[in-house]
Amino acid sequence: QVQLVESGGGLVQAGGSLRLSCTASRFMFSSYDMVWFRQAPGKEREFVARITWSGGSTYYADSVKGRFTISRDNAKKTVYLQMNSLQPVDTAVYYCAVRRSPTTYEYWGQGTQVTVSS
Questions:
Q1: DSSP H helical segments within 4-116, as ranges?
Q2: 105: left (phi over 0), alpha (psi -120 to 50) or beta
Q3: How far, CA to CA in Å, does 52 sit from each of 39, 56, 59, 115?
Q4: Bridge-partner residues for 56, per DSSP?
Q5: Pair 12, 86: CB distance under 8 Å
Q6: Could you tell me which of 96, 106, 82, 93 has the C-alpha nearest to residue 41?
Q7: Nearest to 117 by CA among 10, 8, 6
Q8: What's residue 54's pLDDT?
Q9: CA distance linking residue 46 with residue 39, whole number of Å
Q10: Which residues are CB-neighbours of 10 under 8 A, at least 6 positions away?
């Protein structure tokens, strides 16, 4: 069974940084685009970033562009999200997932909590 495990969340002050990791198992990680989503309390899950299977292209939500960087290491089956200049509005549970198609995301991880204090 495919498994995605996120880690790296925590509590940080505004302006600080965190690096999230998502490690996959039991599937052809290097064949798929990977994405990060987040869900704040009382809000819908929203797209954060995407990286293509080769790592050659990346895409970001406007709200994080210039502050967050997505990357991947296919040998380690891991996708990362480097988050800089964090703000309280970035507080959310962050999830990684496999992008099967423009509208289909599968194998969500359990999420990792990011809390940014002002």
A1: none
A2: beta
A3: 22, 6, 9, 27
A4: none
A5: yes
A6: 93
A7: 10
A8: 94
A9: 6
A10: 18, 113, 114, 115
Rounded to the nearest angstrom, the gap between the alpha carbon of residue 98 and the centroid of all alpha carbons in its chain is 11
The whole-angstrom separation of Cα 74 and Cα 31 is 9
Name the one residue in this structure whose structure tokens are 């996959």.
24
> How many angstroms separate the CA atoms of 108 and 96, rounded?
6
- Interatomic CA distance for residues 38 and 113, integer angstroms: 9
Spatial separation of the C-alpha atoms in residues 109 and 116, rounded to whole Å: 21
47, HSE (Cβ side, Cα atoms, 13 Å)? 17
Q: For the chain, 118 residues long, give each residue's pLDDT as a single digit of tens.
A: 889 999 999 999 999 999 999 999 888 899 999 999 999 999 999 999 999 999 999 999 999 999 999 999 999 999 999 999 999 999 999 999 999 998 899 898 899 999 999 9
